[in-house]
Amino acid sequence: MLRNFLEPVYERSLIAQIRHIPCHVAIIQDGNRRFATARGIVRQEGHRAGADRTEQVLDWAREMGIRHITLYSFSTENLLRDEGEVKDLFELFKERFSKIVSDERIHKDRIRVRMVGDRSLLPADLTSVITRAEAATNKYDSYFLNVALAYGGRNEIVRAAKEILEKVRTGEYNIGSIDSSLVEQHLCADHNLPPVDLVIRTGNEYRTSNFLPWLANGHESAVYFCAPFWPVFRKIDLLRAIRVYSQRREATMG
């Protein structure tokens, strides 16, 4: 009971300390499996609890006026996990992307949903559902939800390098035309994301795990690491992260 009383008070205190809202927040959703182990439930239920928390966090982010959210939901390294777990995750992604087509909140708030990552590494039935969700929201421009699936920063850079080299081979580019602007154009060709202002990682891990290296590390985004596993990430944790960004912005402006 005391916690239920104190948390809203603390939330209001945090909001009062925030003067700048990030435009683009990237979240590494870590700890679903450890949450399941700690609760004595199967891993699948841990991932499902994480997916439920994602929907709540997205509501909080919209309340705060954050226009771009990118979720690190499934990395290229995750493909090496147990086959059964990967299959369960793909089914969960299919379920949640399917919901997007008819989700009233998505259409009311005009949220554009996009996938970031290597589609060639995903099964056809999943990419088909993702394509339908993207098509249902591709006219929206109020908020942007980017879901990173089969994503890896190294893989993204390698793919961009191959594209550039192929265009050098065909004569479209020459070596002298390759600069940071051209590299960024190819890195972001499939998603066109803005620079990352704030990276959040849950689960008490202190690394950014190869997530959006060009848009985050390359633009010196603020980073917030926190202890809670993703399924128990709170609005207070989000506000603390935004406060870190706001304080950093204040310092650079001063």
Characterization of this structure:
- This protein has a six-stranded parallel sheet with strand order 3-4-2-1-5-6, with helices on both faces.
- It is 51% helix and 14% strand.
- β3 (111-116), α6 (124-137) and β4 form a beta-alpha-beta unit.
- It has one domain (24-152, 195-253): 3-Layer(aba) Sandwich (Undecaprenyl pyrophosphate synthetase).
- The radius of gyration is 19 Å and the shape is globular.
- The longest helix is centred in the N-terminal third of the chain and has 22 residues, at 43-64.
- By secondary structure, it is α/β, with parallel strands linked by helices.
- It has helices spanning 2-17, 32-39, 43-64, 83-102, 104-108, 124-137, 153-169, 180-187, 235-253; strands spanning 24-28, 68-75, 111-116, 143-151, 198-201, 222-225.
- The mean pLDDT is 90.
- α2 (32-39) crosses α3 and α4 (83-102) packs parallel to α6.
Return the CATH class. Alpha Beta
Question: Radius of gyration from the CA trace?
Answer: 19 Å
Regarding quaternary structure, what we see is single chain
How would a textbook summarize the main sheet?
6 strands, parallel
Low-confidence stretches: none
The CATH architecture: 3-Layer(aba) Sandwich
In a nutshell, what does this entry contain?
With 254 residues, the chain is an alpha/beta fold.
Topology:
Elements: H1 2-17, E1 24-28, H2 32-39, H3 43-64, E2 68-75, H4 83-102, H5 104-108, E3 111-116, H6 124-137, E4 143-151, H7 153-169, H8 180-187, E5 198-201, E6 222-225, H9 235-253
Parallel strand pairs: 1-2, 1-5, 2-4, 3-4, 5-6
Helix pairs in contact: 1-9, 2-3, 3-4, 4-6
